[in-house]
Every structure is written in C-alpha cells, then in structure tokens.
Design a protein that fits this description.
Layout (H helix, E strand, L loop, with lengths): L17 H9 L8 H31 L5 H4 L9 H13 L3 H36 L1 E3 L5 E3 L3 H7 L3 H10 L1 H25 L4 H9 L3 H31 L11 H6 L12 H11 L10 E4 L11 E6 L3 E5 L6 H18 L6 H5 L4 H11 L5 H7 L4 H33 L5 H13 L5 H4 L11 H23 L7 H11 L7 H7 L8 H11 L2
Parallel strand pairs: 3-5
Antiparallel strand pairs: 1-2, 4-5
Length: 535
C-alpha cells in the first residue's frame, strides 16, 4: 500500500465492527482484570475507530480531489486518547489478559497509540508536506511549469536521458522545501519518542513491525551480496536494450522510463486496465462488479494523484480504489498491487478492530505483490496482454531484472534507515552510500538530497522487503496446489480468501507456516531470479 506523509494507520483505515467488538470485550470474563479497566480501554478503542474513519476520509479526498488536508485538526478533543496514561492502561490490560487473540489485539492497539502520539505531534508538519506536494510546481528545462506530483510521469515519458535528468533535477527546488519540513518532523519525532519511554526511533520501529532490525539488516546485506553479480549483468543488459545506457551511466531519473517498458505500451492500454483486472479476479471467483464493498474511482480528475492507491475507510464494508489510467506496464502493476490490498481487506472476516487494520503491514503487502506478480507471469501475459515469442521472453527477463532492482533498492533503503537511526552521522551520505551499493550506478549529491523524501516512517521498507519473499512463497504454493494457471482457479481464490479473512492477525512467519514452510524464506524468490536471468 502506498505510503503517505500522514499518521501511520490513517492509510490502513478503520472498521465499523469496532463497536460490537468493544462491547463484547467489556463483558468478557477474566477474574484478574478489573471491569472498570475493560470499560475504559473499550471506550478508547471505539474513539480511535471513529477518528480513523474521519482521517481516512480526509486523506482520500486529498488524494483524489486535491482537497486541502488538515489531519492536525482531527486530533482536537482526543488528548486523553493519545496520552501516556491511556497507553499505560492498555499495557496493564494487555499484561493481565490471558486470551491470546485479545492480548494480540491489545498489543496492536498499544503500539498504535504510541505511533499516533508521534503522529499527533507531527501532524501539522505532515499536513504541510502533503499540501506542498499537492500544490507545488517546478519549472522544467522546457520553461514550462509542471506539478511536482507529475514528476514520475514526466520522466517516464521523456525519451532522452538528458531530458529525464534535467526534469528530475529541476524538481530539486520542491525537494528543498519538503526537506525543511521533514527535518522539523524528525526533530519533533525524536523528542516525542523520549516522552513515550522508547530508547530510540528503532525501538518503536521494532515494536510496530515485530521484527529485529539488526537481523533483518543482515538479511538485506546478504541479499545484496548474493545477487550482486547476477544483478549487474542483467541490469546492464536491460538498460542498454531499453534505454541505450550502460549501467555505469544510469541515474535514478531513468528508472521511471526504464520501468515503463514504453515499447510495450500497445499491449497495456489505459482503456483495458479495469477489464483485465476484473477478468483476472473473475477467474479467482471474485466479481468486482458485484463487490459493493469495493468502490472504484477511475475518473481522470485534474488534481487526482496519478498513482493507483487503496484506502480502507471502513473494513470490510467501504474499501476504495483510486486510479487515473495512464496505461503502460507500471500503471498496470500499481493497479493490480492496490487491488490486492482491496481484496484482502474486503474479504477480512475478523470482527476485531485491531486485527483488521493495525499491526504489521508486511502480510498485506505480500498479498498485493501476489496479484502484481501476474504482470510478470508469462502465461498470464500471453493470455491477457497478447505477448508471445521473443517479445514475451524479453519482457519476462526485463520484469525479473526490474523486480530484482526493486528488491535491492529496498534492501539499500533498509540498511540506510537502520544505520541512520542507530546514531549514524550525515544521513544524506549514508543514503548515498547504501543506495549506490544497491543500484550499482552513481547516486549523485542531488539524489542524496532525497534522503528525507525517500524515507518511510518507522521502517516501512522492512514491510516491502519481507513481503516480496512471502509473496514468492505464496505463489510457489499456489502453483503447486492449483497449477501454473492458478489465477484461473476458483479454488485458488478460496484459498486466498481464507488467508485474507484473518485481516492482519497472522504475522509473516504464521502465514508461511500455513503454506507448509517453517517461516519466511528467501530461497523461492532468489531462485526465481536465477532461473529467469541465467537462461
């Protein structure tokens, strides 16, 4: 799910079943737990649920219609909810509760409160960032004024390397404005964490994600080393073939064009995007036209962000999917990815508010990557995009190279963020060094200035990084259980719906165990890269 400069869980939404679940909790029997404490926490859970709905609706309107955003104002009147006292009450109830499901929900809620205390403190700054991004323009090398949010589209459409770099660098003026705000956000965040009793930024990040960052960093470094030779060879060949550039001369500005696979645009037209998504979901047994809990907004509104995105306003009854169809492979992948989120939350069946929306985001990202991966599958591409022969083979190889680039990019981001928040000095330099290792092409000082705009709150990069590996495990299971064309199997759809029904209750390792694996494994994805890229 696309990340925004908004409160951490606004982007995950809320649910209308929270009142029922809260009322049930107040009547549960646990002799060690005072009834007054149960009622107090249940009231706060219901308050949080309602606030999330309001914030999610505002975020939707900013993304789709360009409405001004004022999340900071929504916190007014909720001072008690986001207080140390409330967090301590939740922790006390968590410690006294014996039921595993309720205990997990309370842990999710406690971590949410901690992250939201930070979010409340930085909300005015986040609003400023979102509003600058929505309104800011920059003057391109052609002298024309362009919206900042159109930068990715502009560089994707620019045919010449120098033109792409010029456009990218022209947006530096906006990046500098954003950096002023983002540096303020970092200072306020650090000060707020101290009041919550967290020893460091990393400590809250680990609490949110339930992962040991040092261990994950070791995995990230190992993946970079293990894939280095394969990546350099494949990336150099693909860049030369698609952009006429050797790896050593590429820039970050070239990646939007590289990912676009512009020569295949005729196979991925804008007016077929929704038809192909609906057709694919139908094969799995999901009729998007009859899923009334998923609202699709594909109107080409002037201020709409062009990136497809899923907003979970009320889970599972009000899931919204926004897109501004441009066509091309990248646009299709974004749509299928966000549709994966939409189906996950639309099929959530747990009535527990925290288990629907809070907790670790790696599982929902994995579900999103499972659908997105169809845009790399030769059988799906042959059936739905009309690709065949050498063109199909070339595309599949290119797609694997691009996914490997992304995996390495997020490994680099993760290593940079861990190093920075472990006390590393000069974060721009840390960013430059880590990303240059990942990309294997120059990361300039201008690129390094993006160390803040390319930074996700509390290690969200860890979610994407783990999600790619989990998605590969899920795909491996789907192919073994339901055949190579698993997306055409209603039984495969039922299997996915069963996983989705848990919401966010299952962690990465628990999902892996449901597949028959001992836990998260890197081997299936790395084996896929080796198989495709060494043919």
């Amino acid at each position: 799910m696309l990340r925004f400069t908004l409160p951490l869980v606004v982007l995950l939404g809320a649910c209308q079943h929270g009142r029922q679940a809260s009322e049930e909790r107040t009547t549960s029997t646990d002799p060690a737990v005072p009834e007054s404490l149960k009622r107090e926490v249940a009231a706060r859970e219901d308050e949080a649920r309602k606030l999330l709905i309001r914030q999610s609706e505002l975020a939707w309107r900013n993304w789709v219609y360009g409405d001004p955003l004022d999340i900071a104002a929504t916190y007014q009147g909720h001072e008690t909810l986001f207080s140390t006292e409330t967090a301590l009450s939740v922790r006390r109830l968590e410690d006294l509760t014996s039921d595993p499901e309720r205990k997990l929900a309370l842990r999710f809620f406690r971590v949410y409160l901690s992250s939201e205390v930070v979010a409340r403190a930085v909300a005015p700054i986040n609003d400023g960032v979102a509003n600058v991004e929505a309104d800011a323009t920059f003057v391109g090398p052609d002298g024309a004024e362009h919206p900042y949010r159109e930068l990715e589209r502009l560089t994707a459409n620019a045919r010449d390397h120098r033109a792409r770099v010029a456009l990218y660098d022209a947006a530096d003026s906006v990046v500098k404005k954003l950096n002023v705000l983002l540096l303020q956000k970092e200072a306020v965040t650090q000060a707020t964490l101290a009041t919550l009793g967290y020893a460091s930024y990393s400590a809250l990040g680990e609490d949110i994600r339930q992962v040991k960052l040092s261990t994950l960093g070791e995995t990230a470094s190992s993946v970079l080393d293990e894939t280095d030779a394969l990546y350099r060879t494949a990336m150099n060949a693909e860049l030369r073939a698609e952009l006429g550039l050797p790896l050593a001369e590429a820039r970050r500005a070239d990646i939007s064009r590289f990912n676009r696979s512009a020569d295949l645009d005729t196979h991925f037209p804008a007016d077929k995007m929704m038809d192909r998504l609906r057709g694919t979901l139908a094969g799995l047994g999901f009729d998007l036209t009859k899923q009334k809990n998923i609202r699709v907004d594909d109107a080409p509104l002037p201020k709409k962000n062009s990136r497809a995105v899923c907003f979970n306003i009320v889970v599972p009854d009000d899931i919204r999917l926004s897109l501004k169809p441009l066509g091309g492979v990248t646009d299709y992948k974004a749509l299928f990815h966000e549709a994966g989120h939409a189906e996950h939350y639309a099929n959530t069946r747990t009535p527990v508010f925290e288990l629907q929306q809070l907790g670790d985001s790696a599982p929902t990202e994995a579900y999103a990557f499972v659908l997105e991966s169809l845009l790399d599958n030769p059988l799906w591409l042959s059936e739905h995009a009309g690709l065949s022969g050498k063109q199909l083979d070339g595309y599949v190889r290119g797609a694997a190279t691009k996914k490997l680039y992304l995996l390495r990019r997020y490994a680099g981001k993760l290593l940079y963020e861990i190093a920075w928040h472990d006390g590393g000095k000069d974060p721009a330099k840390l960013y430059q060094t880590a990303l240059q290792r990942a990309y294997a092409f120059p990361v300039t000082d201008s690129d390094a200035d993006r160390y803040l705009v390319d930074h996700d709150d509390f290690f969200y990069a860890a979610d994407y990084f783990r999600a790619w590996f989990l998605a590969a495990q899920i795909q491996e299971h789907l192919e073994k259980q339901f055949g190579a064309r698993w997306w055409a199997s209603a039984e495969a759809g039922k299997f996915l719906a069963e996983l989705w029904s848990y919401g966010n209750e299952l962690g990465v390792d628990e999902i892996a165990r449901k597949l028959g694996d001992p836990g998260l494994r890197t081997e299936p994805l790395l084996a896929h890269f080796k198989s495709v890229l060494t043919r």
